[in-house]
Amino acid sequence: MLDLFDSRERVVLADQAVLMRGRALGVDEALLAAIDAIAGRAPFRRMVTPGGFEMSVAMTNCGRVGWVTDRTGYRYAPRDPATGEPWPEMPAAFAALAHDAAAEAGFADFVPDACLVNCYEPGARLSLHQDKDEQDYRHPVVSVSLGLPATFQFGGLKRSDRPLKVSLTHGDVVVWGGPSRLVFHGVLALKDGDHPLAGRRRLNLTFRKAL
Ligand code: SIN
Ligand code: FE2
What we know:
Blueprint: E1 10-14, E2 17-20, H1 28-41, E3 58-63, E4 66-70, E5 73-77, H2 92-104, E6 114-120, E7 126-129, E8 141-147, E9 150-154, E10 164-168, E11 173-176, E12 185-187, E13 202-208
The structure holds succinic acid (SIN) and fe (ii) ion.
């Protein structure tokens, strides 16, 4: 049988970095409902960077550990500092999507233990950074975009490398690893809009194996 999801567009961003357009479309509503349930227990919050700036992106997590930042630094924590409770469990559908997308991008056996949930409202942005708080860079990063479109910057291994700009829309999945694992990336300020399923928001799931 023809599998529509396997025939969707793939964009190679760099060596072992691929954008799979629409890869999450079959499960988009389930993902959004699960995000609502997670945020009901571990509310979205704007965290503070070690430099003292409040981030414009609101964040929460699910999984064994969650990514947090405060004045003392960036780290993965087993509990939500806002509630003292463990982060909500990673839904099986999240782990399955991340695992399967990673496998399709050439990373077999990806079992994420952390899922950062980012909520962008109009104007929110994420400046260029590397994901490097994880213990083993052999594991890829899997990113799932939902809601309003955003411009993703995908650069090189040096901050000064001029980034590619690629529009990420509802259902898009990006996987990067191997020689691209430590590329600088970011998200430009979100333009206002109204998405039929997500409203005036962009939601992003970032899956990593942190421990
Ligand atoms: C991130 O780098 O943590 C998130 C990227 C995105 O929102 O697309
Ligand atoms: Fe990142």
